[in-house]
Amino acid sequence: MVNRANKILLDIFVYTLWISRCIATAKERIPGSIDNYVTGVSECSQQSDNLKDNGYKP
């Protein structure tokens, strides 16, 4: 029989797997949005930097 401490550890493990799967699914459905949120870089700022690199002056 599983004691209480082992059950808690098992619950944490299963919850961690569930969360990581949710994140992986979100990344597949919305390419770039999760990574950009985590790194703090938005698609708009990347495009703005690209324009500046090409000599664009806002």
UniProtKB/TrEMBL annotation:
Name of the protein this chain belongs to: Uncharacterized protein
Top-rank taxon, per record: Bacteria
Q: Which organism is it from?
A: Photorhabdus kayaii
